[in-house]
Structures are given as C-alpha cells and as structure tokens.
Specification:
By secondary structure, the protein is an alpha+beta fold. It has eight helices and 18 strands.
C-alpha cells in the first residue's frame, strides 16, 4: 500500500491550526480568496482586493509557486468590476480555468485555476468563511484534481474495512488499476493533457460504480476501488467493467484525441491478512496485467 504523504498531512495541519479569523474577515470585505489546492503550497491562501496579484515562480510574485511547470511571470489576477479576472502573462505551459486554456477570463465563485501543475480555487461571494472551511474539509478527504477520495482517506477506509471483515463473515475485495503509458501522454502532449485524461478516466469509472464501492486516487495515475461483501469472481467482473469504461472512447484535449487504456489487478482478502498484504497482492496482479500486454485484468 502506498506510504502516507507526510507533506500532505503537515500542510493541512498548518492550514487548520493557524488563526484565520483576521484573514477571513479581510477576505470577506474584499469579497474574494484564492486557495491553493495542490503542490507544496497546499492550503495556502491569498486575499484578493483592488491590487493586482502576480502568480509565478519569480521572487516578485504575490503568490510564488515553485515548480518547473510554472513560468516566472505566469498569470496576474486583477480587479474587474465587483470581482476579478485572470490574465495569462505569456506563460510557457498556459493558464487554465476549469480545464480550458485561456488568455484572459473573468472569474466566478468556485472556478478552478490551473497554473502549471498547481491547482487553485477562486472563492468569492457572501459566504467566503463557510466556503473556505468546506474546501479545507474536502482537501482532507478528496483529491483536488479528480474529485475522488484521496490516498489518505482511501487507506484509512481500507484498514477499517479489513478490520471489519477480519471475522470472515463477509468477503472483501480490492481492485487496483492505473493508466497505461500515462508518462507518454504527459511527455507528448503536456501535463495539462495528462490531468485532463486523469479527470476523464475518473469520471468514466465513477459513472459505473455503485454507492457501496469506494473509489480513490492512490498515486499519480493509480486508482483503487474497495468492494465490500464481494467475492473475487464478482470483483474481477467489476474490474473488467472498469477497463471497458475507461477505454470506451478517446478523451479530447484541445482538439486532440487521446486514447486511454488501463491495466487492472484484483485480490480478495485472505484469512488473517492485513490491509498492506491485500494491497500488495492486488498491486502484484496489476503488474501481472501490465506484463501480459496491458489493457487487461488479472487474475
């Protein structure tokens, strides 16, 4: 099972433990807040008022995002009427709003902004404090890119389910899958195309899962589905349904068609087995599927 993301936990703890009262009150007066949803500055927030705020890798930026995918002067947020707009500053990798590349766009409450590999969220309106706390709570449980459960929450749920099923009364199965040749998508079309593929594949899988099946992103392009009260034969069928759903049609990014397939591994909890053992066996089956030529389910 993937190791816990210590940086993820520590940055969230800092976000929650700081005294936010003054900042939130100022943000409410200015009517807008920019929240970082991913990367090393996860949880960082910037109050947006009348003054323009530059976002980039350079030391003079109001919001510094230290990543190779971010230009030194990447984008600028400016006051526009009663709200704000974002203007790309000729960045190498582009600025995106809700997955669409833009040169300049007026922002709406809840808009998601892509700056290189960093994901930001624009919060505005009359209930900034409530929206902020809700978003922080989401960060603790959900992956900000795909909106499925994050690794931390999935791991906790897996351990609890294994403990519950350890009596042997009910079966427990685990499906692990990842996107085939995903690095090639990133290298050929750019990481924004890769993000688009991750979101599209996640949505395709979510559409076929039942409410009792827990779905999470547990790695860069690796996902897992926890199937309670499910024997391995049925879990294998569910794995095949996932494979078909993802590969049904190519994903589109900036008019490019990107075909995607997945390799899938399945395992059922054995008597006396811990969560880590179950995950390792499902992961081993995933690698067996890759060795068999990819785009298949094992065992």
């Amino acid at each position: 099972m993937p190791e816990p993301d210590d940086n993820y936990e520590s940055t969230l703890e800092v976000t929650i433990s700081r005294d936010m009262g003054t900042l939130i009150r100022v943000a409410a007066e200015q009517r807008a807040l920019l929240l970082v949803l991913s990367g090393t500055r996860l949880g960082h927030r910037v109050v947006l008022g009348d003054a323009a705020v530059d976002v980039g890798r350079g030391s003079g930026a109001g919001l510094i995002l230290d990543a190779d995918s971010v230009s030194r002067k990447h984008a600028r947020l400016e006051r526009f009427g009663g709200g704000h707009k974002i203007v790309d500053q000729g960045s190498t990798n582009g600025t995106y709003v809700n997955g669409v590349r833009i040169k300049e766009q007026i922002l709406k409450d809840g808009d998601r902004i892509g700056i290189g590999k960093a994901l930001l969220k624009y919060l505005a309106g009359g209930n900034i404090e409530g929206a902020y706390h809700e978003e922080v709570q989401r960060l603790m449980r959900f992956d900000p890119l795909t909106n499925v459960f994050n690794k931390r929450h999935f791991d906790e749920s897996l351990r609890l389910s294994v403990f519950t099923a350890s009596g042997g009364a009910k079966a427990l199965s685990l499906i692990v899958f990842d996107l085939d040749h995903f690095k090639k998508v990133n290298d050929t079309h750019g990481h924004m195309a890769g993000d688009s593929v991750l979101c599209g594949a996640s949505q395709a899988v979510q559409a076929i899962l039942s409410p009792t099946e827990l779905f999470g992103r547990v790695g860069g392009e690796e996902f897992a589905v926890l199937c309670e009260d499910t024997e391995i034969a049925v879990a294998r069928e569910r794995g095949e349904a996932i494979r078909r759903a993802v590969s049904r049609e190519p994903y589109t990014f900036e008019d490019k068609k990107l075909p995607v397939t997945v390799s899938v591994g399945v395992a059922q909890l054995a008597s006396g087995e811990e969560a880590e053992g179950l995950y390792e066996r499902a992961d081993a089956q995933l690698y067996a599927a890759k060795a068999a030529g990819r785009n298949c389910v094992r065992p």
